[in-house]
Recover the amino acids of this structure.
């Protein structure tokens, strides 16, 4: 059994292979990494497709992924700062009907306050709580009042639970 010098099909590096290995496979790769890199390049699992954003911009994407351009994505994540948006407008009819309101509250809070518990200073996981509960507001109250920075407090999960169960007062 003699060794024969061959070139890697992917990186063109020269290496030695046994003659029986050459008979078994006409493809020569110096490592598994080169084989996988070559296979992924030649036969990718996901193919790029082009999608049109509702605004008309062409968006290159992988199958089942992005549907919006960068500009539309950034505007979808913005807080509605119009004074006309009320609590009623932000509510949804599904199980988590206040989810959108709470999402806006998190965005407002973390833009202006540090990400740490106001009681103990814990900063690995901070939840935003409304000091005056959402159910106490009229549905025609503007979202800017409901999610005003003076009505929001950052708490760790333990203090948030205590606050919700009237064991902690702020």
């Amino acid at each position: 059994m003699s060794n024969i010098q061959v070139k890697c099909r992917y990186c063109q590096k020269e290496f030695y292979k046994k003659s029986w290995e050459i008979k078994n496979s006409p493809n020569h790769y110096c490592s598994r990494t080169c084989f996988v890199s070559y296979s992924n390049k030649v036969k990718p699992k996901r193919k790029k497709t082009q999608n049109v954003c509702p605004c008309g911009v062409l968006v290159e994407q992988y199958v089942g992924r992005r549907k919006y351009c960068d500009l539309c994505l950034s505007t979808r994540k913005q807080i509605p700062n119009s004074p006309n948006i009320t609590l009623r407008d932000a509510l949804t009819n599904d199980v988590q009907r206040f989810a959108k309101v709470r999402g806006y509250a998190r965005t407002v809070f973390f833009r202006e306050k540090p990400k740490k518990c106001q009681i103990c200073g814990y900063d690995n996981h901070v939840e935003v709580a409304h000091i005056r509960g959402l159910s106490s507001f009229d549905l025609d109250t503007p979202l800017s009042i409901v999610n005003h920075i003076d009505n929001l407090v950052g708490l760790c999960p333990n203090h948030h639970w205590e606050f919700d169960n009237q064991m902690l007062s702020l």
Observations:
- The CA atoms of residues 10 and 34 lie 6 Å apart.
